[in-house]
Amino acid sequence: ITRLTTDVTNLQNAFQMIIRMAARGPVILVFSLSAAFSIDAKLSLIFLGAIPVLGVGLYFVMTRCHPIFKRVFKTYDKLNLIVQENIHGIRVVKSFFREDHEIKKFKDVSKDIHDDFKKAESIIAFNMPLVQFVMFATMLLLSWFGARAIVASGNNPALGLSTGQLMSLMTYTMQILMSLMMLSMVLVMISISRASAERIAELLQEESTLENPQNPIYEIPHGEIRFENVTFRYSDESEKPCLDTVDLRINSGETVGILGGTGSSKTTLVQLIPRLYDVVEGRVTVGGNDVREYDLKTLRDEVSMVLQKNVLFSGTIKENLRWGDETASEEEIIRVCRLAQADEFIQKFPKRYDTYIEQGGSNVSGGQKQRLCIARALLKKPKVLILDDSTSAVDTKTDAKIKKAMYEEIPDTTKIIIAQRVSSVQDADKIIVMDEGKIMDVGSHQELLERNEIYQEVYRSQVKGGNDDE
To answer: How far apart are the C-alpha atoms of 370 and 418, rounded to whole Å?
Structure first.
């Protein structure tokens, strides 16, 4: 956020100053120096002695300030993060009565920024006294040597320097030193904005490692998915892979459930299908072709994914749903909402499908948000539909209705369902049990109950929990 706000503002201010002062300053300096040398070349050499003094002083200011400003903007990132966390988690902060702790954390970071800026400004403040010292020292030297030259020439321009010429030199001195002052201000502003420019450049130069191949495939024939000896890690530095030598085949049109504990890499597995990440070893195929051979837009249009964290944007329900298909008619929108069991609650809103969704979907419940996101994904008419724990906030009855509607209405679509509840996946054609990045077993509900300990443990704990509740 800091790179998009504070850094951009610093760069804008620097640019506005540079285009005014950096254009005028050098022109005034060159013409004033030329005029001064045409009057008296020897006396004008004083200016050439003043410029290196200013240069050394400005070099000191810039080299000392740049590391401080670089550190300040990183601290700004931390400050913005604290503010963002507190805004999003204000209810949690209040419920745990942590207001004083969060205020102290904010003040500590603010103090770091204050101290760094104070230190930087104290160094920058050295710039103005230096310029004024050089200015008045130059005028004193010109007055001293000029007066002696006038006395020696008897105030005769033909023999040496006259009073009028000395006054002209004084005028040019003011012009030269004012231009040097402008340039010094420009250089100081550059030292401030340099850190911001570097941070913005880092952002602009960041390139995605996921690129279209030279001759991409623009059509996915069917929804068959294969994982062939797939190994994946998020970082090259990670010793242990998130997925380790995974082999899996999902036939087109199958409904597949994925079950496993937290951290078993269920989400990581399915994120490789729409190529949100590339595998480290092995390959993932959809429709018989490696996902890296497809055009990215084609692949992601045909592999629709509803993420764990459901996101809705500011706008009407229609506008949010049309992220799936911009040209979708109202009838198509209603159809997918009925499939996702969203039409029922939408019809209760006064404006129905024209109801405005606040930022982040804050004016709808968690379950309603999930159903809208499922409807949005269905609107793409994908060959592969992935639901990543996307019905966790929906009651069991509604969850069952959604699954039933999918089985009946989109039988040719390959459906992958990640869930924590056995009831959400027990009717699937096959269920994948994962643990620590490996596929431990694949089979139907009944087969896994007979032979897989992990599945048995999850099933029994949920059945027992359900009986206890009853």
So the answer is: 14
